[in-house]
Every structure is written in C-alpha cells, then in structure tokens.
Amino acid sequence: MKHSKIPLSQTVVTLCKTHNIKHIVISPGSRNAPLTIGFTHDDFFNCYSIVDERCAAFFALGIAQQIQEPVAVVCTSGSALLNYYPAIAEAYYSHIPLVVLSADRPKHLIDVGDGQTIKQKNIYGEHVLYNANLKLDLKEEDKTVKENELPIIKSIENKLERFLGFQKDIQSYNESEIHDSLSLAAIKSGPVHINIPFDEPLYETVEELSINPKQFKLQNRIDNIDDFEIKSLLNVWHSTKRKMILVGVLQPNSIEEKWLQKLVDDDSVLVFTETTSNLHHPDFFSGIDKIIAPLDKEGFKALQPEILLTFGGLVVSKKIKAFLRTYKPTHHWHVDSFRANDTFFCLDKHIKLTPNTFLSVFLQQVTHHTKSTYKANWLVVRQKRRKLHDAYLKTIAFSDFSVFNTILKNIPELSQLQVGNSSAIRYTQLFQLPKRIEVFCNRGTSGIDGSTSTAIGAAVAIKKQVTFVTGDLSFFYDSNALWNNYIPKNFRIIVINNEGGGIFRILPGHKNTANFDTFFETKHHLSAKQLCEMYGFEYHKATDGISLEDELVTFYETSNEPKLLEVFTPSRSNDDILLDYFKFIK
C-alpha cells in the first residue's frame, strides 16, 4: 500500500482510521497532497472529490448528519479553508461532528509573501470544539544537527521549533493533539479543526509506515443521571396543571414510542412539535403557527404554561418564540447532553442528558397525572384550525402556498425530505407530514448557503429516496452543489421559483419599489434548465396546479439521471395569500 513519506501525514491518516472515520471529502490541491495520497490509497476510507470547498464541507455535513459520526474534509492551504466556515458554523450549532484537516505551510513561510498562505492557526475561533495546530516534522538533515550548533541558530525565531526537541517529541505531541480532536468531535458531536503544516517535497511515497502511534483509549458518551435533580423536578411536575413540551430539531427515532405515549396520557401536557422534530402522535400539536398566530391576549394567557420542557435543536417558529418571551413559563427546563439555549429568557434548568434517557428515567417516576383540561381545550382549538386550513386551501389561486400543499402530499412514504431555509421551511411548517417521512433542514445558522450540498451528502449516506425542496435564491446560491459525481439517480430536487426572495415581501418593508426589488427581494429571471443540462439532471417544469399534478405523477419513477422539477409561481401574490391565511384561520 502506498503512503506519503511524510510522518505527519501518516499519523493523521492512521489516527483517523483508529477513530473509525471512514468518509473523507477531499478538495483538490497541492499542499494537501500528502493527505490525499494517504487516504485515497487505503480501501478503509470512502473518499470523495469535491472541487468547491464550501460545497465540499456542506456535502460532508450532510453525510455526518445522517450517520451521526465524524466525517473529515481535507483542503489545501490559503483561502480554501475559509470556504469551509459556513458549514463549520452550521455543524457547531447543529451538533454535527465534522473534522477539518487543513494543510498549511511551515511557520517560516507565513507572512513572508509566499503564495496561497494565510494565518490558519485557530482560524475558526469559537465555532469549533477544538483547535489542534500540529508541529512540522523534522527533516532528515535537521536530525543530524550537532548539539554544539544549536546556539548559533537560537536567535532565528522561525527555525527555533525545529531544534527544540527530537522527532519523537514532536510525534508524541501531534498524536496527542489529533487524538484529543477526534475524540471531542465524536463525544461532543461538533466540529474540530486540525491544522497540518507540510514542507516540500509533498508527493514522495513509501510502501511501509515509518510511524507507530501509541494506543489511545477511545472514550464513549456517558449519561450521568442525578437522582436528586430528578426528584426536585418531579415535585414541581406533580403540582402543575399546564405543562408544555416544545421540540426543535431532532433525529428520527431519538425517543422511544412508549415515552411519547406516556406524555400523551397526561391531560396536563401539550406537546408542540416542529416539522424538523420528527416526532408524531395524533395528540401532538404540529403546525405551531396555526395555533399561535390567531390568538388574542386572553388566548395567550390560557396557553401560557407553568412548566416549559424543551429538547431538540433550534426552533423555526418565530411566533412561539415571541409568545413564550412575552408570556413566560414559571419554569423552563432544557434537556440536552451538550448545550442549553436560553431562547425564551427564562431558563432555570439544564438537564445534561439525551431526551430519551431523561424521559425514560423521569416518566417512570411520575406517580400521578394532575387533573387538568389543558390538553383537551387546545385539542378543540387545533381541530378548528385544521378545518379552517383545509377550507382556505380551496379558496386560493396557484401560489407558493398551494404548491407546498401539493408537493408535500406527494412525497413518497418511507423517504427523506430535505428542506431549504427561509420560505421553504416556514411553508413546510404549516402542513402535516406523514409519520414515515423524515425531515431535515440546516437550522443551526438557518443559512441558505449550503442546503443543496447538504441534501446531496445526505442522499449519498443513506439508501432512502431523498427529496430536496428549496426556493430559487437558495438553489442558485448553491448551484455548484450539482458539480458532484456522487449524486444518486433517485435524488430529486423541487425548486419553487418565484423570481426572488419572496420571504422579504412578507416582512415589513416598502414593497413594489425599484429599491426593494433590487436590494431586498433580489428580482431575477433565471431558470434551472441550463444548469440541469450542464450537470446531467433530468429537467421538469410546472407553471400551474394542473401541470404540477401531472409532473408529480411520474417524478419519482426510476430514471437514469437525478431529476429536478422547477415550479414557477407568481411573485406578486404569494405574500398576500400567506398573510390572508392567518387572517382566515383567526
């Protein structure tokens, strides 16, 4: 087997293998050649070549999102690793394990005018769990320097490090830093950065490893249950009549059905779920905005919980954030192994467990259900809202709203739905989805920049049918995502093209002016057709309700190429139809 001749490269590759990191996304470059040689010549690794570093990082994020294990991205020096930053931030806030392996130049070539060189040390700041800045290997000629020659060069700062220790000391340091980084990525589920300096020559290979890393004990996540804390929570739980559970982004099958049923059996508990929570039960409250939007002051007071229990990632609904910030619960407890956001400015307890572990321990100790009409009253409200929702759909013209209704009804069961940010995820939130459809969206930073790349990465990682639904600006922004040789033939993209950033028409602003159209909504007349021709997608188009229904009949049939359906909607009426919806259900 071929290996890079450079010991540092051998060490990085070997320890990635030790930590069972199998997926390696590589962007072509020269400075990272030693790593590329090591990874691509070992059959243990699944290697992918993605030219655009921003797309590469989001593609890797999509894989890691699905397998819930670290995935590595490898790039050359200079601005290459800056293009990883959006995906790094998303991974940090979404608890996704991503490992950045950035090649760098030796310290003496930094800031001397050498090409493709920037200050890479700690470049991601607080958006990574760990920054490992590895040390350059000693060269063969460095190892032969006599001790009495050292004082001569001690004044030369940028060469000092080479002569302070022997190679074995550098090797030990590098091994420890790599191990700590990879362990944290897995245990704390987040991004880490390993910066790796290489000196030339970069392309030399050997048949045998020159390193023998010491054995590290790999750690596992451990839930530490505090019985005293559980008992104190139970005392409050048993004495309250209005308990609200709000669930943000959550992996499918994170919580066992029996615990969900126990929550439903309690009449004092409302369970509000977002589309991205992947939790379903007939008595849960999905479509949060349908409940919240029409309420008056009296309604808000009736809904105000005494206990708010939250778990999962970030919440999409701005309406429930505004409600809970104004009508604060007496207690807010958040369950998460790593982090608790004080989203509603009333957090008083962070329970550092997984939701399933917490519920399994907590609910088994709930001795009785408080008598309450809390859930029953709001189930009546929910039913009224759903009837009005269905009635409104019969009154409206072809629009974004009607398109989402049609699309979501036609998503195949036992498949996965990836949703773009901005309008796409907010429309999706208004509809009920079948239990057997998994939903994902990049809600860590809620950016539009890498949604397509993430969806493709997810499709590569799993066997299921994946459909990506997105708006036009998000799609065109990340169009380099299609420059990818690994897209499955059953991958489907649906682009809702309303010729601009339609969400800005819903927000306060001076609509229908040249300034608004150019700098806020960003009007355009682009189509995805030419991109499909260039990247080998089968292109389909719909311009009204009938053509949309017709296209969806065959859209998921087996094909020799992935497919894209572009749905053109009227840009000027979508905002009014959505705003009128909330008036109608009120």
Low-confidence spans: none
Mean pLDDT metric? 91
How many beta-strand runs?
19
Structural class: alpha/beta
Proportion of residues in helical segments: 25-40%
CATH homology superfamily of the largest domain: Thiamin diphosphate (ThDP)-binding fold, Pyr/PP domains
Strand order of the largest sheet: 3-2-4-5-7-6
The percentage of residues in β strands lies in 15-25%
Q: What's the Cα radius of gyration?
A: 27 Å
Describe this structure in words.
The protein has 586 residues and is α/β, with parallel strands linked by helices. It has three domains: 198 residues, Thiamin diphosphate (ThDP)-binding fold, Pyr/PP domains (Rossmann fold); 155 residues, Rossmann fold (3-Layer(aba) Sandwich); 191 residues, Thiamin diphosphate (ThDP)-binding fold, Pyr/PP domains (Rossmann fold). The chain is 37% helix and 15% strand. It is built from 24 helices and 19 strands. A six-stranded parallel beta sheet has the order 3-2-4-5-7-6, sandwiched between helices. A six-stranded parallel beta sheet has the order 15-14-16-17-19-18, sandwiched between helices. It has a five-stranded parallel beta sheet with strand order 10-9-11-12-13. Strand 4, helix 4 and strand 5 form a beta-alpha-beta unit. Helix 1 packs across helix 2. The radius of gyration is 27 Å and the shape is globular. The model has no long low-confidence stretch (mean pLDDT 91).
